[in-house]
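Trying the structure run again after the queue cleared.
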Amino acid sequence: MDMQEIFKHGSTWLRADFLLRTPADSEFQYSSGAGDFVEACVDALQKAEIRVGVVASRNRLDLEEFRALRKLALEKEIFLLPGVELLLNEGANGVRAVVVFCDDWIRGSGYVDSLIGVVLGKDGGKDGTNTRTGEGVLDIIELLEEYRRDFFIVFPDVEGPSGLWRETDEETLTRYLRHGLFQRHISAFLGARTMERRVAVRALSGRYCPAELEGSAPARIDDIGSGKSCFLKIGAFTFEAVRYALSEHAARTDEEPRVHGASWIESVSFEGGMLNGVTLSFASELNTLIGIRGSGKSAVLEILRYALGIPFGDRAPDREYKGKLVEYVLGNGGKVIVQARDRDGTRCELSRILHEAPDIHVNGVLQPGLSMRKEILHRPLYFGQKDLSSMGNGFEKDLVEKILGEKNASLRRRIREQKRKILKLTENLHLFQDVAERRREWDARRRDAEHRLSFYREYGIEEKLQKQIDFDVDARTCAQVTATLNACLGELETFVRRQEGELERHRHYVSKQNASFFESFFAVYEQIYGNFTDVRRALTESARLSATLEDQTKGFARIQEQFKEEFALLERKITLDLQALGIRAVRLEEFRALRRTIEEADQALEGIDREENELRNLKMALEDELEKLNALWFEEFEAIEAELGKVSDGYPNLTIRAAFRADRSAFVERMKGLFRDGEVRESQLRSLADVFQDFCLMYRGLEEAKALLGVSAAVFEKQFLKNLGALLTWQVPNTFTIEYQGRELKQHSLGQRASALILFVLDRQDNDVVIIDQPEDDLDNQTIYEDVIKLICTLKPTKQFIFATHNANIPVLGDAEGVFVCSFQDDVICVESGGIDSPRIQQGVVSIMEGGEEAFKKRKGIYEIWKTEPEGQA
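Done. Tokens:
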């Protein structure tokens, strides 16, 4: 029977007691009525947090009493198994043994009584005393097998009076421990205390040894739960689950419940779409999603990846399909909710609506900016279907990125910030790209004007017209000031006029649902709007003052007009003086124009001086920032190398070697993208790649690069400078080479590559959660069991695995704590969940993964026929 809450996360650790007494035992002290005992017993079990118990009085099983106990216990999520304690005919004092029965023994009546009658006689043991049976250990097992009903045996207090270890000598105990009947049905030794004796018994047993557990054998209600405790990990309240836990006691029994110390995903829930209302409560260890193709397994994993924000990777196949799969399954407005625990056990919840950013709550409090996969789950790994098996160019880099996860996140944020600084600097450099040409133009115009003015200076004309020249300079200054001011005010007026209508419109918004919120919101907005109004008033006042400046400029023109006759008289006199000297080709208006040209040139060159100084500063700053970017790139590479070194230390068969900025082909391809076909030959670009390690060095040695290109230099320089920011912030890729057993991975067979990679990925010590869609791809069943599953079983106490799989070996032999049976019908994905112990889940595994019960039984029968001894052996 499955109990939904207690097995919510699949198999779980529960306290067990393998020897509980009842008033049916003569030595159990209880004075109240029988009805009172059932309630008192269950209350005591609940108080002691005992969830699994074997009820075994000596030589007797009171079925009516047991059924009443079990019924009430199940209501309190406590599972009781029927049993009887016998004193076997072994040793000087007999050997105590508890036979634990499956439910087939207590359906109807008579089977247990029949057994007791056979071993003790018709009236033997009915008083609950220690009457010895006529059978020894192996005899009782043979007798029990004749009933063709399942059972197992535990030996109580093995070191105490009538204990198996005390009553049998070493030779007898060794014979038992290595006997097939004993190994098949003896599940546990209870009350083993002495470590020296325990070690000795284990040595006698060879490869087989029963579990070492506890049974309290309480003499009264108050004794229930006293003494040492033991725990089982089971996934259902069934006889089979308990027996299997004992058979796998190394993994499924302990003195204390084992705590999963890593971060893990507790559950994923869906609202809307094809998974509406579905919640998958994951186990902290191995989880497997099973189902036929198209049943929704991959959809669940893809949505989980999407919710956590785990990127695909550059080499992931079917990226577009997987992205659309998430949209298709979640549907419009679909929502996914992920609950997880960090390494400290703090519960966190992520909720994400399709196409929206996720919200994360920690202990119920919203935490803006928090990332579950960065700060809650410790470096989760995700591999979609075929991600590990589809090797090709870039596969190694993708694998390294998945391994690193967020390891270098802070360093990469610094790199992104450094790139932004460089891009800003290069944008500013573009503003000065024509400064040299403009200097040449103004220098030429000034030299020409100076040359032509030399003629006028020769005759002292400049000194004679100095007053008129000064008035011209003043008039031009007034005109320039008012023109600059009017242009600035005009642009401001245009901007304000374009925005003020939109700003005014927002003031009149009325919310139908959130009036109180927007009352506070627009109170702040009104303050900002008031500042904007102040800007408008300042602009109006500035326009008025500008008009005043224009009037003053006109006033200066009137002042200049007053000297018009004086200046004309002076020009006539100069002209007559020159004519007297025989010089007639003098045009004073040209002289004044040349003076204006020199003045304009001086102003322009003064501005260019400032620009060139700023340009020098920009170039120096760019050099400095490029040095910092290169240092960050190398720091990132060193961090990657250090992490890959840990990979080799932890998994010596597989090595990943890195080389800094070594992908010369990518470098050449990046350069080819700058030019149209034929503009620059590929051979020339390869020559550049041989000389310069990256674009930063090429920028510093641009003249050398142009010399290498010959006639293509001008085209190259133009495109290089046009794309300068993008080129300087582009890193020549590092290269990664994966070696397996001393050879490059790509030189191995597909199966060898797949097995090496899956084992490497699973064995990563620094990833708490591993999500893989079909990890069995390209692996044979022997590799899956001998390597993959055994490794998973070793790692899962400290690492959570979530797999979608078609291979029955993974959930069954991997002893999956959580199994999710997926099915798709009428546009709805249904999921039934439970531990591998659950009969419902077992039926799903047989039906889906073994081809149905008939095929399973037929295959089992064939294997039984094949179980023959090797030739030459008896």
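Confidence is low (pLDDT under 50) at residues 869-874. Worth checking whether this holds up in the mutant runs.
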